[in-house]
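Worked Example 4.2. Consider the chain below.
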Amino acid sequence: MTTLLLEDSNAGMRISQDILNKTGIVLLPKGTVLSLSIINYLRKWHIDHIHVEEAQVPFVSEKKKPQKQLSDTYKSTLNATTEIMEALKGSAILKLKEVREVISEIGNFTDITSTLETISHLKAQDKYTYQHNLNVAIYCLFLGRWLELDDTSLKKLTYAGFLHDIGKFKVSEDILHKPDKLNEREFKEIKSHPVYGYSMVKKNPNLSQSIALGILQHHEREDGQGYPFGVEGPKIHLFAKIIAVADVFDAMTSERSYKGKQPPLKVAEELMNNHFSALDQKIVRTFVNRLSDFYIGSKVLLSNGVVGEIVAKNPTSPANPLIKINNEFIDLSADRSITIEDIFM
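Applying the procedure from the previous section yields the following structure tokens:
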């Protein structure tokens, strides 16, 4: 057994002694495998040290580490994204040359497995705003391919995904980063960001109407309950429908200042069930089906503190796949008392 400061611990380590709060309540049982979300959970309880097993072997295998070349591409593209978006804070003029270069780099993301691994490993809360624009563009690119869009449409879709939130840079940072609930005036201002973004893109003759509509309508919903205009499904541009799915998925699987991330398969189920009337179900099913394939073989931390492996997906309930634990199998769709808390990429 080794005693570590919590700040020196890493995801993949297994705790060797129950972790208790100051009143003696067990926060985590012995044998629990640490993840980034669990480490953050312990920080909130002001746990400063933990006991872990000797000779730790992280559950992230060598083949699951992001490819260095793709990782470097993502980092350089994120840096370029940050510069483009930062420049918008003082000007309404979009640096189209720089945007073209980023879109060209995004085209290098061709394998969904290594791409998702890279995004998962490199997500950072303090860069959420910039990463979100980049991630949504990448997810849109894959969705467009899976929906068999032609090359021209695919490139326009990627532009729309990348620029979908540029209108937010015209909203006060105090509102954007407010940790508390927004009041009616502030929420109204937030809901204006698609219009701001649309206006910025419309000023550029080199960007098409389909890109502008994708930006304008990405918060519209199939049931007409979206914004800024409350239009219904048939009137929403295809790009906006695709961006909506990518936008929700990336937001819900990211750590933000006001809300923690959720496991990807849980988010996939949310997309299918709780967003059934809001999002285009053909696009959702396409995305979820491909996503579920990717996570087969991944190690998962279950709510009972046990680590298992996903061996088969559940097409109707992505968050409840078949799990193998040693030589036993648990069908999470049959036992809803156990849930997936985290996935080791």
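The beta strands are 2-5, 19-20, 26-28, 49-52, 299-302, 307-312, 322-325, 328-331, 340-344. Residues 55-66 have pLDDT under 50 and may be disordered. Compare this with Example 4.1 before moving on.
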